[in-house]
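User: Please run a holo structure prediction.
Assistant: Happy to. Please share the sequence and the ligand.
User: Here you go; the ligand is zinc ion.
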Amino acid sequence: MKHNLYCGGSLDRGFLMRKDQAWITTRLAAPSSWLVPVWRSLSLICSADAAAPRLVSLPAAEGAELLALPGVETALLGLAGDSAYFAVDIPRALEDAGAHPALAERGGFIELRSVGALLPAPEAALAAYARGLMWWHQRQRFCGVCGHATEAREGGHQRTCLNTACAAPHFPRTDPAVIMLVHDDERCVLGRQPRFAPGLYSTLAGFVEPGESLEEAVAREVFEEVGVRIADVNYFSSQPWPFPSSLMLGFYARAASVDIQIQPDEIEHARWFSRKELLATPPGLPRIDSISRRLIENWLRW
Ligand SMILES: [Zn+2]
């Protein structure tokens, strides 16, 4: 199956190398290594050809000044052949990271979502990985147990509390969210939230709660949002969605009831759409880089 966007990158994540600090230090300065800059959760993109933007990776040998910035964070993303790739989070205190001498004229820092669908898929995956990991670092600088400062370990895949009486380890988190197309074979339910662009309808979605299976989350969210009961749930595929830290788990859910009763706090309008209508006169649909769009388009081909 074709990968969803923002995953399917070709890096070997180099799990064993994360523990080897001497290897990491050497590789951070090695001519064969590459740096993937992130600043304020923005990605460095070269848009010289607006129709074909590219993610900028910097040869490590040209990034020494960046790595020397006070407060910079790095994380080993993985290996591609002999080349190591590192995410580099440029301190947010820097007013205009794009103007830094090591980065000027390479590209500009922009929101990944604005160009993700136009990037080569491996670059979209690499950018998503770097963005998601560095967002987590930014929000785990203090221990959630004792409040003391934390420090990156394991090649940037763990943070450890520096209070020796606590020393709690903290691991990068991903928040599971279910996203589902509710259908009765010929029709499906799409809804819209008030924040959506005019005319746009999408699949239903919501976060998984503690103590809940994915199937239970699908049934609960569908009932909460549109009042429809679900008969069975089938897994489709998943997509990392690091905006900022979700993993979208896609499902098809067969409806066991038809009446729609929206939850106005979350949904502005929802209704049944026939396959014929979606093919002939579709409403605005979700962005093409999203699993929501793939759930709909895949169902239309059933
Ligand atoms: Zn602590």
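The longest helix spans residues 121-138.
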